[in-house]
Amino acid sequence: MIDFLAKFFRREEASSSRARERLRLVLMSDRVSLAPDIFDAMKGEMLDVLRRYLEIDERGMDVHFENAERQFALMANIPVREVKTHDAIALARRVAVPEGAEFTSAKQTASADAANGSAAQQATMTVPRRRRRRRARTAAIAPLASQPNDDAGTPQSNDDAGTPQPNDDAGAPPPSG
Amino acid sequence: MPDLERDVQDAPAAPAGASSQLQLDAPSAAPVKLGRSIVVTSGKGGVGKTTTTANLGTALADAGRSVVVVDADVGLRNLDVVLGLENRVSKHLLDVIEEKCSLDDALVRDRVRRNLLLMPAAQNREKDDVPEEKMALLVRQLQERFEFVLIDCPAGIEQGFRNAVVGAQEAIVVTTPEVSAVRDADRVIGLLPRNIELKLVVNRVRPAMVKKGTMMSVADVNAILRLDLLGVVPDEREIIIATNRGTPVIDIEGSETGAAFRRIARRMLGEDVPIPSFEDKSNFVTRIMSTLGLGRS
Amino acid sequence: MPGRAFVITSGKGGVGKTTTTANVGCALASLGKQVVLMDADIGLRNLDLVLGLEKRIVFDLVDVAEGRCQPRQALIRDKRLDGLYLLPASQTKNKESIEEDQMREVVRLLVAEFDVVLIDCPAGIEHGFRNAIAGADEAIVVTTPEVSAIRDADRILGMLGQRRARLIVNRVRLEMVKTGDMLAVEDVAEILGREVLGVVPDDEEIIDTTNRGEPIVLDASRRLAKTYIAIARRLIGEDVPLPSFDDDGFFGRLRRLMIGTRSHA
Questions:
Q1: Chains touching chain A, criterion 3+ CB pairs below 8 Å
Q2: Measured between CB atoms, does A29 come within 8 Å of chain B?
Q3: If 0-12 CB within 10 Å is exposed, 13-18 middle and 19+ buried, where does residue B285 land?
Q4: Scanning every residue of chain C, which has its alpha carbon at the shortest distance from the alpha carbon of B129?
Q5: Choice between C163 and B74, residue whose per-residue pLDDT is larger
Q6: DSSP class of residue C53?
Q7: Best to test chain B binding among C54, C157, C207 (most B CBs inside 10 Å)
Q8: Closest Cα partner for C75 from C104, C44, C47?
Q9: Distance to chain B for A13, nearest Cα, Å
Q10: CB C16, CB C63: distance < 8 Å
Q11: A15: which chain B residues are within 8 Å (Cβ-Cβ)?
Q12: What is the band of A1 on the pLDDT scale with cuts at 50, 70, 90?
C-alpha cells in the first residue's frame, strides 16, 4: 500500500522539482571536479584544523567526494596515530583562535573557523570519540552544500552533530603505545 | 561593392587618434571614452545567444546608442542571417585581424538602423585561426568607436569561447529553463574571468508549462545559477517567423518576446524596469492541489 | 560481424542531437539490439543527464582513451533496458583533450562488441566535431526547419567526407508549416539534398521527460515514442514509411526523395 502510494505521488510529482533536484546534485559533482585546486585548498585547511587535535597519518589518508545514488557526500578516511595532549591542543588552538576564546564545543569551533574565512561552506563535523584503539575514523562528513545558503545551519543527520561525545575517560591522558 | 561604400561613408567618424586600420602595436593616442563590451554566452548551443545579441543590439540602437554586434562564431556564422544582412557581407573579422582590410571595410550597416553595425564572422575558417590577443585588440578598437560592443559567443568552451570572451568587460549568460542548458550555463560561469560583470537572461520560458510544473521556473533556475537577473524572455512562434524573415523579433507587432528584449535593453541603459511575472495567477484550490501532487499535473 | 557506428551531428547547437541519441538508442535496445551511446561532448556533457544516468559516472571517455581503465569499466549499463549502455564524456576536460586516432580506437573496440554505436556529437565544427566523426561509418544529421539550423547542417554535410548521411528533421510544427510560417520537411530535404531518416514533431513533453531523466521512448503511451521506434527500425534496415502528416503530396514527394532522385554521396 505504501509502495503504491509512493509510486502514485512520485508519478504525480511535477517534473520541474525532479529537474531541480537532479540539477542540484549534478552541479555539485560538476563544480567539484571543475576546481581541483579548490578541493585541494579545502582538504588542506580541513587537515590544518584536524592537526590541532590529532596526529594524522597523511600517507594513509583518503578524502574524496562520492556521488552515490542517494546522496552526494564528502568521504574522509583519516588514520589517527595519536590524539594530542590537552596542553598541545590548547597551545595549537591559542595560536589559531583569537585570544580569550574558551574551550568551546566543536560546533562553535567550526563556526569560528568559518568566520575566520577558512572555509566557505559550513560543515558540522563530528568529533571522533576517544577510543582506546589506535586508529579511529572520522564519520562520513555529511553532504556539503555547494552554495553557502543551501544547508548552512541545518543539523546533519548524525545524532551527535556538533557536540563532543561524553567520554568515559574525560580528562585522562590519551592511551600510550 | 558600391552599396557598401555608400553605407560606410556615413559611418560614425572615428575619434581623433583612433585609426580605422587595425594597428597592432600603436594604441590610440587620444584618450577616448570607451564603449561597453559585452559578450553574450551560454555554453549550450541553441538557447538564443544570437537572437539575444541581434535583438538587444537593435533595441539599443533604437534607443539612440551606437552599437556594433560582433559575430564570434567563426565557421558557423548566423548573426548576419538573423539580422537579414547575409547578402551584404563581404569582408569579415579575420580579414581585419590579418590586416587584409580595414575595420570600415568589414563593418556592415543595418538596413534600418543607421547606428547599428555588424562585424561578421568568417565562414570558411576555423576558430583556432584567431589569436586571442588580436581579438582583444579588435574589440578595444570597436569600443573606441561604439557605445556598445555586443559579442555573440559560439557554443562550447574551447578556443571560440575564449576568443569571444577575451575582450569583454561584461557578460550576459543566456540559458533556458532546461536541465542541460542550466548545467552548461553553470559550467560557463565557472570559466568566465572573475573580473567580468555577469548577468543572466532566461530565455524560452513557457509560463503555462511552469504553472503545470513541467518546466522549471525562473526562480528555480536562478536559485542554481545565482546571478543578477537581467531579463526573462518568453517562448513564442514569432521567433521562428522573425528568423525566417531576417528581421529582429522586436520589430514584430505584438510580440511578447520582442517586448521582453526591449525591456532588457532599457535595463542595460540603467532604467529600473521591473520583470513582469508571466505566470498567470492560478486560483487557491488549484495551487493547493498541485502542491499535494493531486489533480492535473 | 562488427556493429555499425553512427555519429549524430548537426553543426547548430540545441537542435536535438542529444535527445535524438538517447531516444533512438533506447528504441534500438528495445528492438533487441546491443547498443552503446557515446557522449563526445567533452566538457559539456549532457547525454548522461538526458538518460538519467548522471549519478553513476565513475570513469569516462578520456579515462578510456588514456588507458586509465578498460572500456568495459566505463560503460554504464542502463537498468531499464537490456542491451543499452552509456559511455559518458569527461566533464573536467574539454574537447582538446582527446585525439582523432584515440576516438577511432575506442569506437573500434566498441563495434567489436555491440550491434550499434551512436556517437553524440558536440555543436560546432572544430576539434570536438572532428573527434566525434572520426570513428563513425555513417552520419545522422539533425536539423530543425529553421534557417540557421539548415545553414549549419549544410556546412556539416560538406565535412562528412564519403560517409552516408541521412537527415532527421526535428521540432516540426505542422500548423506552422500549413500557414507557411515554417519550412516543410520536403523543403528541408531538397535544400540539403539528403534522404530523410525521420521526422519528429515538436512536443513539449520532451522537456518534461528530460527533467525526469526518462527518455520519452520508454513510455509507450507518449506520442513521440512511436516516432523514435520508427526511426530505429529504419536505421536497422526495415522499410518503415515516413508519417504522412497530411494529405497533399507530402508523403509522395518525400518518398521520392528517400528513394534518391537527388542522390548525393
A1: B, C
A2: no
A3: exposed
A4: C126
A5: C163
A6: -
A7: C207
A8: C47
A9: 6
A10: no
A11: 213-214
A12: low
CB contact under 8 A, A18 and C211: yes
Show the CA angle centred on residue B229, arms to residues A114 and C91, nearest 5°: 65
Q: What is the pLDDT of residue A110?
A: 47
Q: Which three cell numbers stand for residue A4?
A: 503504491
CB contact B46 to C (< 8 Å): yes
> Among candidates C190, C197, C200, which has minimal Cα distance to C239?
C197
- The pLDDT score that the predictor gives to residue A116 is 47
Give all domains of chain B, ordered by start, each with its CATH number: 2-11+33-291 (3.40.50.300)
Q: Is A20 helix (H, G, I), strand (E, B) or coil?
A: helix
Q: Is A22 in contact with C91 (Cβ distance < 8 A)? A: no
Asked if residue C157 belongs to a domain, the reply is yes
Grid cell digits, residue A70? 542517494
CB contact under 8 A, C43 and B241: no
Reported as a pLDDT band with limits 50, 70 and 90, residue B293 is low
If one counts the domains in chain C, the total is 1
Closest residue of chain C to B78, computed from CA coordinates: C148
**Residue C132, domain extent:** 4-259
Binary contact (B190, A16; C-beta < 8 A) = no
User: Does residue B143 have a pLDDT over 70?
Assistant: yes
CB contact under 8 A, C55 and A25: yes
The tens digit of pLDDT for each residue in A76-129 reads 999 999 999 999 999 999 887 765 555 555 455 444 444 444 433 334 344 444
Q: Establish if C231 belongs to a structural domain.
A: yes
Give the CATH number of the domain where residue C32 resides.
3.40.50.300
Exposure on the CB side of residue C125, measured as CA atoms within 13 A: 22
Position B19 confidence tier, pLDDT thresholds 50, 70, 90: very low
- Residue C264 is assigned to a structural domain of this protein: no
Residue B21 has a CB neighbour count (10 Å cut-off) of 13
pLDDT score of A13? 72
Neighbour count for residue B207 (Cβ, 10 Å): 18
**What confidence tier does A31 reach under pLDDT thresholds 50, 70, 90?**
confident
Best to test chain B binding among A7, A16, A26, A149 (most B CBs inside 10 Å): A16
Q: Is the pLDDT of residue A160 over 50?
A: no
| Interface test with chain C among B52, B158, B221, B236, by most C beta carbons within 10 Å | B158
Q: Count of B–C CB contacts within 8 Å?
A: 118
pLDDT per residue as tens digits for the range C138-158: 999 999 999 889 999 999 999
Nearest-neighbour CA in chain A from B220: distance (Å):
7
Contact list in C for residue B47 (CB cut-off 8 A) is 13-14
Task: Say which residue, B129 or C176, is predicted with more confidence.
Answer: C176
CB-based contacts of B245, cutoff 8 Å, min separation 6: B84
**Option in A9, A30, A34 nearest B293 (CB):** A9
- How far does CA B48 lie from the centroid of its chain? 8
> Does A23 contact B at CB distance below 8 Å?
yes
Q: Inform me whether the pLDDT recorded for A174 exceeds 70.
A: no
**Extents of the domains making up chain A:** 36-177
pLDDT band with cut points at 50, 70 and 90 for residue A58: confident
